[in-house]
Structures
1.
Amino acid sequence: MAKIIVVTSGKGGVGKTTSTAAIGAGLAMRGKKTVIIDFDVGLRNLDMIMGCERRVVFDFINVIQGDAKLKQALIKDRRLDNLSILPTSQTRDKDALTRDGVEKVLKELRDEYDYIICDSPAGIERGAHMAMYFADEAVVVTNPEVSSVRDSDRVLGLLSSKSRRAEKGEEPVKPHLLLTRYDPARVAKGEMMKVEDILEILSIPLLGIVPESPAVLKASNLGTPVTLDANSNAGKAYVDAVSRLMGEQIEVRVLPPERRGLFQRLLGRPA
Amino acid sequence: MTLFSFFRRPRQVHSADMAKERLQILLAHERSDRSSGPDYLPLLQKEILEVIKKYVQIDSEKVGVKLERGAEMSTLEVNIELPAAQAAKRNQAAQPARHAFAR
């Protein structure tokens, strides 16, 4: 039976979709049957980040409304056997995302997969609520910046009051902090909050620290999850995060952002 | 070097520390507001005004409510502009114009 994990943040642009793709790929690389679902109805982008945008025929909303079978809408990743993507609709309204419909789809996926990763839209409206409602665990993506931390706190409040687990009085949704766009050099200068500060404020366990990295933009340009770029520090950080998500105890390492070396700059080669 | 930077220089307050402090104060309040149900401020304001209206004629447009959230204490300030002296004379029981509450 699959574990349902929501990747959420409240604030937009902090790296939810990048992290969903990276964690999904990382789990698949570790042999786990994984499906990643885009909940951002109307603004779908997980397909683009995963590089399967030209293979979308049916979507999540088609399945909910009974216009297509789940099997028809699922896209199998070409690089990783264990990974599938369920894209969302680009044209429909977010009201198409009904609680019963989402539950039905998740139930069908639960028997076949080890992990179901739900990519939440920004905000705290319907799409975000539906993405988190059925979750067992939550990856709260946060940037070391005041508005992102505040929104993460708000989202943590919603997870503990508006999720299915909260409503049924079951064990609460297990939260994990994924700190992204971290720059240790700026932290050293006192220009950016430290990991410890953010952990103290949000008081949830740390899943990983992803450094600011040119590899993230490069990966999205190519439509490849950054985890597959094993030489990049962002890729390594996601590999670590995935191990922790699987319950392994791994020491936290703060990787520096990659700077282009003198040699590379002289050659004029992109990093 | 401006005069301002001359005064600022020796202290070296890091902006990251400011960020942390601001968040800690704000989130402490936001968390307690979340658990204490709906925002009571509008209702509180309405009731205070009703009580004052029993004694003094006031213009509801001329009412200011300010909330300042601090780490140790918050202050709620209600400023009500009372009508001119002749109008107020009719009401012997006129209330002082300024009320401060600590919460």
2.
Amino acid sequence: MTRLLKWGLVGGVFLYLYLPIAILVVNSFNSSKYGHVWKGFSLKWYTKLWANEALMQAFSNSLLIATLAASAATLIGTLMAIALYRYAFRGKGLAGGLLFVVMMSPDIVLAITFLVIFIALGIELGFWSLLISHITFCLPFVVVTVYAQLKGFDRYLLEAAQDLGAGEWQGFRHIILPLVRPAVISGWLLSFTLSLDDVIISTFVTGPGFEILPIRVYSMVKVGVSPEVNVLATLLLGLSLALVGIAALIRRTDRPR
Amino acid sequence: MNFRRLAIQLTLTWLTLFVLLPHALVLLTSVLTPDPGQLASYPMTLQAYGRLWDPIYAQAFWQSLWLSACTTLVCLLVGYPFAWSLARTPRVTRALLLFLMMVPFWTNSLIRTYAIKLILGNKGLINTLLQGLGLTDAPIDLLYTPFAVVFGLVYILLPFMVLPLVSAFEKLDPRLLEAARDLGAGPWARFTLVVLPLTLPGVIAGSLIVFLPAMGMFYVADLLGGAKNLLLGNIIKNQFLVVRDWPFGSALSLTLVLLMGLLLWLYARANRHINRRGGLDDSAA
């Protein structure tokens, strides 16, 4: 009985989480323009999306920002985690505190801080403002993941390397990096996910010259969202699943060593 | 360049430039005078904070607080037993289930919110189902109600409640429950005296990362709540992007920061309380 209840609850929650997604995927193949009725299988929205330049542009811009932001956040975040783990320096406590603030702050609060700084620094709203803010809000998650992994490994490994004459760069390249690789991969995936999912921060720091998907869709909501958006959602899902598959493969080949 | 210097400099520069300075600027903006041309200008004034007490905004603030509280409560009521169930599955299953919880994030949350609109609408899934079953004749108004907003907020935020709860349940030593049982504690006593106190940090952490963001999710209120400014986020967004009263928008956002500080303080206290009581945290183990 309790077992039944338990799986009923788990199943119910997943049904709730996946129902909207299922509707999007099903409707992407629905030849009806309105999502309420099924009028037969069709791929016409896929071809229509291909021809919809504004939407395709926003889609590829979203992927570009997510990829660049995740990569930069992973690089910078890994360096930050190492700095916080290995070195004593002035402002270390402050740095940790600021990362914590970014992690805990509601998106809307971060969004306006980003908007204000870009205006104050004279950075034009668009590609760079989106990229910098996405990197920044992903950073703490990378730092936390990598830092946790660093804490788990043997400090003496690095000392041994140093005794054998390895410099800081070599220690980083040959000792730290291979050891934190799983955390680095998780950090990248998490950042990519957060960047792709974001609406609030992007709304504030976007500019007319560079539009990403949520902004484009937001402007469509008032007049009616076209079915091509269902196709985009389906493609995003497929693409991300493929990405995770690749990441899982990388990890599997990593293991036997 | 020296690796050590590079890592430290990058850390300090990035965080100062894109976190510390921006927060300081928002604080400064909140005490400036609104200026349509320059967004904000001198002289300094506390006018923006005075407007927070304006009944229109005070009411919106309470409404927003109320909707967020409902969202947090629903997330907690669903997420707590859900996380408990997850934590008791084998490791591989758990990893897979947690992963499946993250998958929806890849279709942007705005698009998912739009899909919820299709579920709740007059011709949506729920109403079609209800009418098909003959439970109602006319469609029930689900969309553009506070209910729809809470439904959407829970949808977006539930995973954030579940994750800290799962890690709290993972830390819970099953032997403690056995010991309590051996000592004669019934199910209710085991729950209220052992499970709940030990997972309380997870409850507070989860509530914290649901409650505050919920107040800012203007797009959920926009799509599912109709044209009303239901959430604090809608007002902040309007002040910044439409009305262009940056000082007032900044002051509104700082009330959220203040609330965050208060909740974090509570969280720290609860954590300390639990650690002192039993010495059960992982540092003692």
